[in-house]
Fold:
Amino acid sequence: MPRATARLQLHAGYTLHHARACVDYYADLGVSHLYLSPITRARAGSTHGYDVVDHAMVNPELGGEPALRDLAQAARRRGLGLIADIVPNHMAAHPDNVWWRDVLEHGAASAHACCFDISWDGPDPALRGKVLLPILPEPYGVALAQGAMRLRHDTDSGRIELEVAGLRYPVAPESIPRGLDPQILLRRYDPARQAGRERLHRLLECQHYRLTWWRNAADQINWRRFFEISELVGVRVEDEAVFDAVHALALRLYAQGVLDGLRIDHIDGLAAPGAYLRRLNQRLGAAGASRPPSCAQPQAYVVAEKILAPDESPDPRWSLHGTTGYDFMDQVGALLHDPDAEAPLRAFWQLLTGDLRTPQQQLEAARARMLERHFPAERQALVRSLEQIARQHRQTRDWSAVSIDRALSAWLTAFPVYRTYAEDGGRSGADRRGCDSASKRAAALLNALPGSADAALLAQLDRWLDGGAARPAAPEHRTGPPQQAEALRRFQQLTPPLAAKALEDTLFYRYGPLLSRNEVGASPTRFALPPEAFLALVQARANDFPHAMLATATHDHKRGEDTRARLAVLSEMPGQWRKSAYRWIQALPDGGRLSLADRYMLVQTLVGAWPADWTADAIEHKADVVAGWIERVAQWQLKALREAKIHSSWTDPDLAYENAARAALAFLRDPGPGRRLLAEIAAYALQLAPAGMINSLAQTLLRNTLPGVPDLYQGTELWDYSLVDPDNRRAVDYPRRITMLAEALAAEGGIFTRESDWRSGAVKQALIQRLLAARQRHPALSSHGGCVPLTVAGPNAHHVLAWLRRHEDGTALIVAPRLCASRLSGYASGKPAAAREFWASTVILLPDAVRNGPWRDAVSGALVQPGPDGALHLHHLLRELPVALCLSLHP
Structure:
């Protein structure tokens, strides 16, 4: 199993060759596996790799398979393995995708028609036997008149193709007149002439796709997309032949010892996740038998991208090692927030917005909007499936599509988790609890009294979508009759995009009492988490998924891990923060339009993202650099406004409002009041920064010492003040990191804790290296040791997290501060003695079994000797750093 992973984002600017050059660095840092973003061929110029066009090929833009093999060999020489991110749920709906292209050319008769979820026989006669292609910039008639579509002759293939927006689409061979010279044919179908447009229109009507305005996708789409992205088409990986084609490359590379594990992207998008994982593990087991002896391992490492609700855990029927760590990212973030700040910060937000609804009510409003405006086609397809089921029985035939839609919409609005997994032998206990919760809340939304017609219909919906009686399921088993299985599939593949788009990409951009709690995997209903609840979640993960990933930063995060850690400090001082924030909000120009809420979100972003190694006078002395940073903030701001869908949106941008928002940022660059305001905000951020670093080190310690596999996102071994993608995928300065790590490794004894080392992030990088080295020395303890709380006594005992991990090869003591970062900032600002005073008279009481020691500090290397009463004095233990990992020296 991996000891620790490092996630690398591959693209044309950072290829497999570049990754190979970083192998020694990551090996020296202490990771055991490089965890690669998708390596299969994606759309040309893709910066993320999830828009796959060919599952059978390593992306040539990344260096192709030879470069991957070179990387694997270099990694193996340093004892590192490779994990690849695979994308079984979707592909690019792009003409470079030969499967998709073949479907567009031949329709339902295509050999690849079974690869995609396409409704060939939907209710719209215009779409019978056709694929909706929502790619036109204007309505069809306007686009035709403007010449947005025209035929082209490909001289290499000799084919006639349709060009739209710079892309070439296939034309059904049978629709093209035979025997005409290509140039004559192009003139006959020239849209510049009326006769040519008419001929072109008739030809387009004969295609296996129906061209339409991009805005029509939400209302008319007849194939499953990834979320609401019409450039990504869902793949039917539940079909065994499709599964084999999608996974052939990954399985071959695993069999050859090139790959050692897989990360499954968006597992909730699959029709049958449990069956998928069983098939995948069976194939991996067979492939593993062929691995070279030097690469032998009992099983492949398999984790899945899965967003969990606060009280949810992965389905116990799943054959995998755990999630990719969004759950840990949320839990450790909540642990570092003071629960007493939730009420005053929410009250401040309500003062700014005038919106007194609870977060749950606001989430339901976002879900309702998504159902109505963004997923109407998917919702109506599910309604039609349910209506067909209703009409098969006398007891239910009177339920109309309209009534089903009304009840279903309320049920979906109230649904509390990403999805159920009832296709896998019926609902689990967790599935039943989620559906019961949805039914109760939907009844309240509909005002459906017991015994009413709406209450009866809600109960019927629940029965239709229950997956049948729970029973063991074979890999390909589908419960219930075909119509019910189809309705269940549509339901279970609708709720995940609905949940993600309503919460992560809507509510978290329109609800912002404290933006550090608006993160992927988080819930607006959970602001903070007490230590005992956090530890219970840690222990549950250790029991059920001991090798799950532990992440605090990802390629999908909305704010860097250190941005969040800094903003979390504000929960320790909500009153002071509100006064400062309100003054800045009022000082920002609003252009007559910019809301107080949007100004407050901007202020939080400026405070959280100001780089720790800048001074406030950087505004004057580094004007160009600061201007570039403000432009990055502007990119976040634009995305935030459009995702919120209140004053602007991606589909209907309000340019006047967006310009007012951008003017507020531009104001901060202008000499005079604007720069003075930015300087004041920057000074506040820098005053807050040391405390934020204390939180960051606590977060770093917990990620690298608790049960699970710590995952390091590229570049975040130094301070990470990034914003949402693409900002969090910017290039990493590896030469700087390599130099800094070399200095840390050469240091005698402990790590450097000078103020300059804090500002640069060197202290964080060195801490990670020491913690991972400890994991390497004590692998069984790191993988299997339990985690129990210790008794802490003294005036500040409630600000200490002290946990003990024990296993056969040793004992580890984990110590971190909580909710006192603002009082420990001296560690990071050159005044550790002042910070140590906070711990005076506060002690950890070790149990009898381990009190005799001795212990060694894994970071400084110093011996730690408890007192005869088993007491460890924190002002001695935490002399130079606010965190500690101590290892016992017994065999």
Remarks:
- Confidence is low (pLDDT under 50) at residues 469-479.
- Residues 673-705 form the longest helix (33 residues).
